[in-house]
UniProtKB/TrEMBL annotation:
Top-level division of the source organism's lineage: Bacteria
Domain Peptidase S53 stretches: 186-609
SMART domains reported for this sequence: Pro-kuma_activ
Upper classification of the organism: Bacteria, Bacillati, Bacillota, Bacilli, Lactobacillales
Name this protein carries in UniProt: Protease pro-enzyme activation domain-containing protein
A Pfam family recorded for this sequence: Pro-kuma_activ
Cofactor(s) essential for the protein: Ca(2+)
Molecular function GO terms recorded: peptidase activity
Gene Ontology BP terms: proteolysis
Protein species of origin: Lentilactobacillus raoultii
Gene3D superfamilies according to UniProt: Peptidase S8/S53 domain (3.40.50.200)
Amino acid sequence: MLTPTASAASKKKHAGKTTYSISKILKALMAKQKMSPNKRVQLDVFLKPQNQDQLTNEIYNVNTPGKTGFKQFYTPAKFRAKFGQPAKVTGQYQPYFKKYHLKSHVFSNGLIIKVSGTAKNVNKAFSTNLETAKYHNNPVQFSSKKPKMPVELADHVLTILGITSFNNQASGLAKKGHKTQGPEKKYSPSKFTNRYNLKSLYDKGYQGQGQTVGIISFAGFKKSDVTHFWKAQGVNSSANRLSVKKLASPAAQTTNTKFNQIETSVDTEQAGTVAPKANVRVYQTNFSDVGLVNAFSTAFDENKAGSLSMSWGLSEYLTHYLKDKKLLTPVYGQIMNIVMAQGALQGVSTFVASGDSGAYAGGIGGKIGPISLPNYSTYAIFPADNPWVTTTGGTTLPFTKKLAKGVKVSVDKERAWGGDYLFDAYIKGRHNMLKNLSLYSQAMAGGGGGISHLYNTPQYQEGVSGVNTFNAREYVSNLRQPRTNPVLVSGTDYGRNYPDVSANADPLTGYQVYDKAAGGWHVTGGTSFVAPQFNGAAAVMNSGKGQRMGFWNPQIYQLAQDKTKTPFTVMDSTTNNSNLYYVGQPGKLYNQATGLGTINFEKLYDNYQ
């Protein structure tokens, strides 16, 4: 082990792959100032994994029937032994940080060292010069000097997160909907459990007993809201079911608004009702590069939750943009891959919402003089694009609704969730719809889905019909105006296709949430509901099988190709079946609007090994 004096005497070198060619954009930064020396800073020193080339094969080995390691799930200690750094390596860092009065904590995976202290001491330890500024009106923390550490320490570092940070403005995906007087059964989670045949597993006595569902969230919530909801649904409403693990995170990245608190309420209420006898554990921090990594890593470190869900995201465009502008480490996608791989190896079933703006997402546009130009295109959503998660998309259930002035909308069968079914009503009653901004926003909403340009096509998707080919109709213009009867276009692309599965998410056929601060009971929707519902469903199935189902995707893509065993209802129509861009591919098993389709949970349970 290095002593502090030996460390201090060592030659220093740049530590890991960094963002720090930031000088290229210094001219674009406004309101630059030195960071207050006593401001608290939190960083992650992310170490180079061992045997990284074996990571992918090992995930398939433990999650694929017939493989030698099938169901031999890792513990955090086993993960560290194979892929993390040993204690003899991580033990060298603590005395170095202690010398600079910085606190440090090594995660059980042996890959992340969480470091916290004042900006003054961080600057001394890493030879940085932390500053703050505005970039496109967003707060930025940065250092124009690359972080350095003693050679012996720097050689093990992949990157350092948190020295440069950008307010990514990620948000919870749940939307505030119309108010109701109280709980109504037609908007309860039983709509999900009945429609997709999870109730038959309840009848066999499988209700999530002995399981913990984990929720990754970036905003606070009131426990009393959740227990009030559970009580109204007739399930165990004891506060003892619900625990919160609060994680420190860079203070500048605040997402703890009333709007975002609805997200955490949705996630905990839905997961805890769908798995009525499971415990619920919330991992809560603020959104940032550090916060996202630490929330998942803490959950996997604890290894209490056999299933996890997250209903937050940001445009994949931003991950590329921030990387190009040197505001995000160039290896952040790789880091999230390693983090999520740990969960897949430990048999954790992780579900991530695909997003609520269809195939579209916003980017940072340009300017002509004072005029801002929009940048709204078919960008994927991060981290729904990650290959080691099961991504949940959205559908619309059959319904008929009368709008203002006698205009009626009707959906006659379950379809991909996309607001294009409102476009005829928009054309007929444009003035009325524009007066009703809530309804107009529904027309511009849909289940997220597309093809990642951050991650390659995973092995489980290769050879599956419909993957990397697509049908699409451009229902929305670049200026976000509805288009009726757009032509069908077809093409090919390559990358991680998402979502994997889908269920009802349309706010017009949606669910209730209870949030006292937001006015009580509301009916709303979004793929935010689907991710925690699948999280709960996984806990129900885990309780029946007596073991973790593990990472779903290797098995569900196999089952989808077996006509006798498939639990999926494929939605492959090219009409009345879009997420505002992608539509079905007739005769093919997969499309980017709904993934493999909706699930019959009883059939999944019976055929899943």
